[in-house]
Amino acid sequence: MSDALQFLMSGLVVGSIYGLIGVGFTCIYNVTGIVNFAQGDFAMVGAMSAIALNVAGVPLWLAILLAIVITSVVAVLIERTAIQPVRGDVMRGIIVTIGVGVVLQGLAAIIWGTDAQPMPAFSGEKLIHLLGATVMPQSLWVIGIGILAMGGLDLLFRRTYLGQMFRACAMNPFAARLVGMKVETMSLVGFVMSGALGAIAGIVVAPIALTQYDSGLQLGIKGFVACIVGGFGGPVGAALGGLVLGVLEAFSAGYVSSGYKNAIAFALLLGFLLFRPGGLLGDYDRVRA
Amino acid sequence: MMRWRILALAAAALLACAATGNGYIISLLVVIGLQALPAMGLALIAGFTGQISLGHAAFYGLGAYGAALIGRWLGVPAWVDIALSTAMVALLAWAIGWLVFRLKGHYLAMATLAFGIIVQICFTEMHGVTGGQDGLTGIPPLSLFGLTFRSDAAMLAVVWLVAIAAILAAQNLVASPTGLAMRAIAENEVTARSVGNDVQSIKRLIMMVSGAFCALGGGLYAHYIGYLSPGPFDVGFSIKLLLMVAIGGFADVWGVLLGVIFITLIGELLKPLGAYDIVAYGTLLVVSVIYCPNGLLRGMAALVARARRTAIAGSTR
Question: Which residues constitute the signal peptide according to the record (chain A) (predicted)?
Answer without folding.
Answer: none
